[in-house]
From TrEMBL:
The lineage of its organism: Eukaryota, Viridiplantae, Streptophyta, Embryophyta, Tracheophyta. Binds 1 Fe(2+) ion per subunit. Fe cation binds at H243, H293, H360, H550. It comes from Populus alba x Populus x berolinensis. Keywords: Dioxygenase, Iron, Metal-binding, Oxidoreductase. This is Carotenoid cleavage dioxygenase 8. GO terms for molecular function: carotenoid dioxygenase activity; metal ion binding. GO terms for biological process: carotene catabolic process. GO terms for cellular component: chloroplast. The keyword Oxidoreductase applies.
Length: 557
């Protein structure tokens, strides 16, 4: 691995250009649009206040220079320039003084080892980014998570563990047999925790991915890798949902059973590493469980999705990626939604629903009648119109080859309606017209105080066509069925993460944090007002960062 040294220099604040905002109704709200019309307006640097100076410029890793030279490679899909960096940023605008704490964002950020380039967005080694807000100032940093997979690759200058689409190259047949044995035991599966990061109720911060062994504890202040999060129970298994439900009082997740197709629903208390079984759901269709990247809950129920995009052991064994990687599409197996009581573990509903494909559920709640009896479960997700091609569109070759064609598959806010009256069928419909958010929808968040409750607002990444990846930030009003959209030409925004204002009584009283990767190689942190969706502040990084996935908020103690 090349040297990762960097030099200290002063970075001057450069006013951003081509910052586009929009508003169909020509309202006074700068930086947003309502609905289907999008009209551009440049960000005016005269509206900003520079509050604090900052930072260090990087030294580019020599092995990346060729990759970085390609104009067609957006910085969002380019490996991070160095292993770690930290510094204070220049802020344009004003950071609210109530915003005190740390936003952490995890995601794949290094897509090569030596001269070998990875295939898929989800293959990259994890890059953890930190934004620390205190007294109106912003300190930022990033660091590679030191998983065994990352350390082995760096030490051996080659891939050593199985990633999402990548398999280590083996020298001979005997080595392949050994690799298969390691696969069945889980030894060859990656611990590259490149998907999400959560703060447990006891304060520990854990980075996660689809494999159970890829649960890694980090220090939110230094970004140091502290060690593996080892589960102390005997439940076993190799995989789990990459998105557990985490609150101050509990941790809920799903453990797919690949041998006897189904799911264990488990709970873990704060301060404990022991998962306890709430109940089990047996699959109703297909040769294997459906992929459960995420799942929703209500106040009293866990909703277990059984998607027709199912895990495939055969694909897992193959040395080269199949079209759907570790999965297979089984439309004949149908799609289902199961509802389990948190208290008893009993299944209170199991309904067939239209075919669907989703990575991310948004939220769910209980629909009640006039007497307060629960009659149905409403569960919302970012749904890709039962189209699995989204996985193929996330190949790095496709992301880097954008030439202006509109190739992003359509998506919507998919709303499941699951009756609790014993009916065998549920519904799936669009919660609002997908044109409101450009028929792009993923990477969602909402006010966490409304977890499992009836809610009005969701925040996500939408689309300004033509595009090959979600390129807007959008605020969804599920009551009015409208959307406000933020857009900047050439920008790729990451998940908009909602932080509520302390003491807030309105659902959207807070702000959104997103990190923006720019076409020109730059990047910045962005704050938007949760109510108006106007820009509050931005702070430029010393260099653009690769696209990241999911984050969490660690409030100041």
């Amino acid at each position: 691995m090349a040297s990762l040294a960097f030099s200290a220099k002063t970075v001057r604040c450069i006013s951003p250009s081509n910052a586009m905002v929009s508003d169909q109704y020509e309202s006074k709200r700068r930086g947003l649009s309502f609905g289907k019309g999008i009209f551009a307006r440049k960000h005016d640097p005269r509206d900003s206040v520079v509050t604090k100076v900052a930072t260090q410029a990087p030294t580019v890793i020599p092995s990346l220079e060729k990759e970085l030279a390609g104009d067609r490679n957006h910085v969002a899909w380019t490996s991070v320039q160095q292993e770690r960096w930290e510094g204070e940023l220049v802020v344009e605008g004003e950071i609210p003084l109530w915003l005190n704490g740390t936003y952490l964002r995890n995601g794949p950020g290094l897509w090569h080892i030596g001269s070998y380039n990875f295939r898929h967005l989800f293959d990259g080694y994890a890059t953890l980014v930190r934004l620390h807000f205190e007294n109106g100032r912003l300190t930022a940093g990033h660091r590679q998570i030191e998983s065994e997979a990352y350390k082995a690759a760096k030490n051996n200058n080659k891939l050593c563990y199985r990633e999402f689409s990548e398999v280590p190259k083996l020298d001979n047949f005997l080595a392949y047999i050994g690799e298969l044995a390691n696969l069945f035991s889980g030894a060859s599966l990656t611990d590259n925790a490149n998907t999400g990061v959560v703060k447990l109720g006891d304060g520990r911060v854990v980075c996660l991915t689809e494999t159970q062994k890829g649960s890694i504890i980090v220090d939110p202040n230094t970004l140091d890798t502290l060690g593996k999060f080892e589960y102390s129970d005997s439940l076993g298994g190799l995989i789990h949902s990459a998105h557990p439900i985490v609150t101050d009082t509990e941790f809920l997740t799903l453990l797919p059973d690949l041998l006897k197709p189904g799911y264990l629903v488990v709970r873990m208390e704060p301060g404990s590493n022991e998962r306890k079984v709430i109940g089990r759901v047996d699959c109703r269709g297909g040769p294997a469980p459906g992929w459960v990247h995420s799942f929703p809950v209500t106040e009293h129920y866990v909703i277990v999705p059984e998607m027709p995009l199912r895990y495939c052991a055969q694909n897992l064994l193959k040395a080269e990626p199949t079209p759907l990687y570790k999965f297979e599409w089984h439309p004949d197996s149908k799609g289902f939604m199961h509802v389990m009581c948190k208290a008893s573990g009993n299944i209170v509903a199991s309904v067939e629903v239209p075919l669907y494909v989703t990575f991310h559920f948004i939220n769910a709640y209980e629909e009640k009648d006039e007497d307060g009896r629960v009659t149905a479960i409403i569960a919302d997700c970012c749904e890709h119109n039962a189209d699995t091609t989204i996985l193929e569109r996330l190949r790095l070759q496709n992301l880097r080859a954008f030439m202006g064609e509109d190739v992003l598959p359509d998506a919507r806010v998919g709303r499941f309606i699951i009756p609790l009256d014993g009916s065998p069928y549920g519904k799936l419909e669009a919660a609002l017209d997908p044109e409101e958010h450009g028929k792009g929808m993923d990477m969602c968040s909402f006010n966490p105080a409304y977890l499992g409750k009836k809610y009005r607002y969701a925040y996500a990444c939408g689309a300004q066509r033509p595009c090959n990846f979600p390129n807007t930030l959008t605020k969804i009003d599920l009551f009015e069925k409208k959307a406000k959209n933020w857009y900047e030409e050439g920008a790729v925004p990451s998940e908009p993460f909602f932080v509520a204002r302390p003491g807030a009584t309105e659902e959207d009283d807070g702000l959104l944090i997103s990190m923006i990767s720019e076409k020109n190689g730059d990047g910045y942190a962005l704050l938007l007002d949760g109510s108006t969706f106007e820009e509050i502040a931005r702070a430029k990084f010393p260099y653009g960062l690769p696209y990241g996935l999911h984050g969490c908020w660690v409030p100041k103690k």
